[in-house]
Structure formats: C-alpha cells, structure tokens
Amino acid sequence: MRIVGLTGGIATGKSAFAEALRAEGAPVVDADRLARDAVAEGSEALGEIAAAFGPEVLAPGGGLDRRRMAERVFADPSARARLEAIVHPRVRALFRREVAALAAAGHTLVFYDVPLLYEVGLQGEVELVVVVWAPRETQLARLAARDGLSPAEAQARLAAQLPIDEKAARADAVVANDGERAALASKAAQLLTDLRAGLSRKLPNAAPRRY
After folding, report:
1. Half-sphere exposure of residue 67, counting CA atoms within 13 Å on the CB side?
2. From CA 168, how far away is CA 136, in angstroms rounded?
3. Angle at 59 between CA 56 and CA 60, to 5 degrees
4. Mean pLDDT along residues 17-38
5. Which H/E stretch holds residue 110?
6. According to DSSP H, which parts of the chain are helical?
7. How far apart are CA 115 and CA 122, in angstroms?
8. Is the distance from CB of 128 to CB of 175 less than 8 angstroms?
9. Which of 60, 139, 172, 184 is least surrounded by CB atoms within 10 angstroms?
C-alpha cells in the first residue's frame, strides 16, 4: 500500500482536489474526520480532554465544543501539545485500521488528507507529499469571502500555518489551484497516472513535480 500525504493551506482548495481524486477512484482518508471520530461523545479521548481542560470545553449535548477548544489552544503551544498528546495516537490507530481495510479490499494506493501535515511532523510517515497550492493573495480573498472575515482576521488565520510557499518548496509534488476548479479533474488524473507509474519522493534539493 502506497500512502501519499495530501496537504495544503487554508483556502488553497485541498478539499476540492481530494474530491477530484475520489472521482477518479482513489481512496482519500480525511484526518479531520478521524479526529472527530477519535473524540466522539463517550470516547476515552473526550474524557481525557475534559479532565485536562475542564468541562467548559464540552458542548451542551456532551460532545466536544470544537470552537471553544480551538480558542483554548490557538495561542497556547503548551495547551495544543496536551491536546495533541491525547488525540494524535487515537487518530493514528484509526488511520491504520482504515489502511488495513483498504488493502484488504485490493487498493494499493491511498491519500491521507492532513491539513497540518508539516506542522505536526507527519511527512516522515507517508511515502511522499502532495501540496495543493494557491497564491497567498488568492488564499486571503477566498478565506475572507468564505468565512466572512476581515482582512486582518484572514491574515491571522494564515499566520497560524506554515506559509503555503514553504510547504510547496518542501513537497514532492505541487498541484496549482490558481485557476478554474474544473482544471483539478485533469490534474488529479495525471497525478494518479504518474503515481501508478512510480512517481516517488523527490531527491534532496530538487524541485517538486508540478501539476
């Protein structure tokens, strides 16, 4: 089973490209979904989070208040580290289970969609990394329009992640999403063709493959 990391930045279009890959028949495992499953109501992880951060991070229904939790860890690295120590091992276990099921079903390639792949150091756990890229100005415009943010708020959101140009420089392959969304379909098809033909991690200091 070849495991390919898929990442990008806020509003670069990673989710749209993941949809294009699925349309081509490629399985894509969503790390955000696994994280939600890991802290589902009644889970061991959710109990540990409540014990570590207090009951105020729980929603009225008993599940995790993700927005309040995000506010707690956004500017507090030590709090973020405590949360990650609880959640990440569970997410890895869920991912291994899904990969095993896909392999048993005959799949030989899977994409692991991880928004903060580089930020949490997962690049060494995948065979190669694909970054969906868009210019920073495009990110800001899309983010402001999508979430109704002011320019300052959009800038702050982007500042919390590695710059998209840095991610692209570190990637093994870069998919440009600075044009029409429809173009992603052909780029997904070409990437899959190249992966099935043996596309692998780039050599040190080499430029990434671009699509």
Report:
1. 1
2. 12
3. 105
4. 97
5. strand 109-113
6. 14-23, 31-38, 44-53, 66-73, 77-104, 136-147, 151-159, 164-170, 183-196
7. 11
8. no
9. 60
The answer to whether the CB of 188 falls within 8 A of the CB of 17 is yes
Q: What is the CA radius of gyration of the chain?
A: 18
Q: What is the pTM of this model?
A: 0.90
What's the CA angle centered on 28, arms 159 and 128, to 5 degrees? 65
Higher pLDDT, 178 or 29: 29
CATH architecture of structural domain 1-27+108-211: 3-Layer(aba) Sandwich (3.40)
Amino acid at position 43, single letter: S
- In sequence order, what are the beta bridge partners of 111? 4, 28
pLDDT digits (tens, 9 = 90+) for 83-97: 999 999 999 999 999
d(CA 199, CA 26): 16
CA-to-CA separations, 30 to 14, 48, 68, 148, in angstroms, rounded: 11, 23, 22, 25
Q: How many CB atoms lie within 10 A of CB 127?
A: 16
Q: Where are the domains of the chain?
A: 1-27+108-211, 40-106
Residues 16, 113: Cα–Cα separation, whole Å: 11
Dihedral, CA of residue 21, residue 101, residue 38 and residue 157, to nearest 10: -20
Give the closest residue to 33 by CA, choosing from 112, 104, 108, 110. 112
